Amino acid sequence: MNAEPINVTGVPVRDKGEVLLSVENISLRFGGVKAITDVSFDIRKGEIRAIIGPNGAGKTSMLNCINGFYQPQEGQIVFKGERRAKMRPHRAAAGGIARTFQNVALFKGMSTLDNIMTGRTLKMKKGFFWQALRHGPAMQEEIAHRRVVEDIIDFLQIEHIRKLPVGKLPYGLQKRVELGRALAMEPELLLLDEPMAGMNLEEKEDMCRFILDVNNQFGTTIALIEHDMGVVMDLSDRVVVLEYGRKIADGTPDEVKANQKVIDAYLGVAH
Amino acid sequence: MLYREAGQYKSTYSADMAVFPLREDRIGIAVILGVALVAIPFLGSDFFIASVMIPFLIFSLAAVGLNILTGYTGLISLGTAAFMGVGAYSCYKLTTIFPGVNIIVLILVSGLFSAGIGVLFGLPSLRIKGFYLAVATLAAQFFLQWAFVRVPWLFNYNASGAIEVPQRTLFDIPLTGASATPETRYFVCLGLVVVLTWFASNIVHGKLGRSWMAVRDMDIAAELMGIKLLNAKLAAFAVSSYFCGVAGAMMIFLWYGGGEAADVFSIRLSFNILFMVIIGGLGSLIGSFFGAAFLSILPTALKFGLPALGIPIQGAAAEHVTFMLVGALIIIFLIVEPHGLARLWQIGKQKLRTWPFPY
Amino acid sequence: MSDIATRPAPNLLANPLVKAGLIFAAVIAALAIGVRLDPTNTLYAIFVDPFQQMAQAPDLLVQTVWEGLVSGVLYALIALGFVLIFKASGVFNFAQGIMVVFAALTLVGLYEKGVPAFLAVILTLGVMFALAVTIERVVLRPLVNQPDIILFMATFGITYFLIGFGEALFGGNPKQMIAEQLYLPKGAVDLQILGGLVSLQKIDIAAALIASLMIAALAAFFQYTRIGRALRAVADSHKAALSVGISLNQIWVIVWFTAGIVALITGIMWGARSDVSFALEIVALKALPVLILGGFTSIPGAIVGGLIIGIGEKLGEFYWGPLIGGGIESWLAYFIALGFLLFRPQGLFGDKIIERI
User: Fold this and answer.
1) Which top CATH class is B46-354?
2) Strand, helix or coil at A161?
3) Domain that holds residue A23
4) Residue B316 CB contacts under 8 Å (≥ 6 apart), including other chains
5) What is the per-residue pLDDT across B91-135, written as a single tens digit (0 to 9) for each?
6) Cα dist. A46→A251, B260, C202 in Å?
7) What domain count does chain A have?
8) What is the pTM (predicted TM-score) of this model?
9) Chain segment A165-176, per-residue pLDDT in tens
10) Which of A45, B108, B194, C93 maximizes the CB count within 10 A of its CB?
11) C160: which DSSP letter?
């Protein structure tokens, strides 16, 4: 399936093709262990880009480099035309990169609503003294952002768990709340680290629909890591394949599927 | 039946975001404030007000302060007493330098000095966490306590090293000093605690409070969402130390009325306030009040309650028993309800909400 | 837990806010010293004079270092108790300090009741075992699987309980340790070195020897016995250890009992130097900076950390303390540890932590 943007909501669809982020010759080492070796690829505006590979191929490390959690020893990242060797996490966030995590990293002591509200932190500007009063401008700001958050809650169909602490929610819903929190940042680039891990078929279908909707309705560029090949091939526009920290293939799902190296990596190769 | 949310519709987000969304809760708070404002000062004896209510209010404020740091932001501090001491000594210096300024203003301002010192000792919190940070705050505790003794400028070169609280008035009513009545001091304490708790409640329900909790629950995710860890943590240190500083100033000026402050702000006090926060409930403002009530009233109750029950107990033995009881109660509480009195309160409310038809 | 406890943030010193704060702190400290002295002499007093003193009177330097070494050994012993328990149960045992006092008090108390000295030692060991079993039954077992902070707070509860209990049983007055009855040496050895007289207390030498022996024994126990292997397994992961059939409860009793033995030995040594009193409880807090230096799980770390803290604080007090009014021993240890943390957040012997998400 080709996720051609469909203009249903009146949101102007940005044309694909322009490069939003490109990763250039990234290498990352932990002591002597090479996690990523000389990997380059790009992510274009509006596309769904999948990063796949066997366990330990360096996929999550790659996402960590993109949003500045790890700092690669070599290589550069160009985001929205800005070239930098090192990304700082809050810079990445302010620049419009949001992400979800492989093992759900929600704020367990807080309610669903508060979790998603934290996604609005960067967009809330009122100072400390207004916050201490919680009246006037600070309250108006809270309410304005609450509206946005309620829209996201509607979109993800999690109205019923709005006030529950997320630590007690089932896994599938936690993943959904996490997506909501990332969406609340109104990101330009959304990094999803195994958004469907550990889900049953129905939950997977829901999650796929949300990802496609996010991509279509908000025009958000998405980079996702996923092990379910069916999902990857259906959702993504282009796929990059990593193995042992190196890039072994890059292209449309069909190209990648036909690539001998990829087949070897997944099915093993007779030596 | 008495306490329920059915039928209370909220048509605006601001109504939904209120701290007490239920009408019954609002009535309850009004009743408590009414009792505190009218019943206690008129019905309570001087002894009750001076040695039960005033300590309770001051400890509550300190516990609220520590709860912001430990409960909301997840940073353990064993230096609370030292930050309280900074507030007390700043207030003392301020009254000496600006004798004309109202004492309430000075108490509030002295918290700012405490906040500054708190930020300074909070700097390591970016690099270190958990128990390591506890040790960093111990550095604050011992260093500041040393300074309170060794820097004579702080106690105006007084030979005894003690602080003397001067008499200060508002509208000719003495607020501090020997001639201030317990009732007046109680009203000042009550006013300060209520206003500051209201501020604390606003802050923890807003953006800053959410950032703190995010840092506490999953600091990596918080960082990747654009929350600057250092700023959030330092803000927590500043706000928390402010509350502690004000509590410390109140402690010396409105409760002790002077004395060797360096002994008061010892590590024992730090531990006590930490217990209040833990027993009351981490991350709960109302829990801070429960914890402070429990731990500040327990020793007094034991001292005067046991003899009244016919159990003869002397001063020293009473102290030992208090220690053992506090220790045992801490363990029992942690086993029975690790989330503290605040959680028990919530469970109780939940039960009440569905009563009498729980299904 | 250790990964929660020590998350290194990359290049803290590069952060302008932190740098500004540190510089500010340094300036304040320098000013505080400066006002007390002639401004022109301040630098001299800090950077030149102490070293001149050291060079002029090397015997004093040796004496100071020795004093530091001895108190360092005792800090290390307390830290060792912490490390044992932390390694095997992940509990940060705040009560270690009070366990030292309690063990020493029990020993002296039993002796005063007329029990022969060595029988009293054995009985005290019995009491420590009973304490370990009680703590495991009453505190640890019901709290299994709770967050670390809860367990940490529970050891506060133990501390308070033991303070009250100890005072109620033995009274709050300082007591004399029964050093002679235990055949611990008394008096001093005077050495003629570097043109001066250095006096070494025999009890200190004994303390250092006994401490080294005990540490060697513990290391061997951990490394070569079946229980030692189980302990290491538990330290790595409670769940995994349970799944291969290691009894957590049994391990905990053993570990707390071992910590109790360490506490008793520490108590005897400490008591022989000064006296047995609850003041030791505050001194025991100094084990915390030692732990920071050495890392919470490293036995050699506890030793080296203890020595660094002990020597550092004695030197600081003796040579620099008078500059700012003396008594800096009460906080210097914590600042030494903090200084180390800025450069090696994982401690001296800890591994660099890689964070995963």
Assistant:
1) mainly alpha
2) helix
3) 1-96+187-271
4) C167, C172
5) 888 888 888 778 888 889 989 999 998 888 888 777 777 777 887
6) 16, 69, 79
7) 2
8) 0.84
9) 888 888 888 888
10) C93
11) H
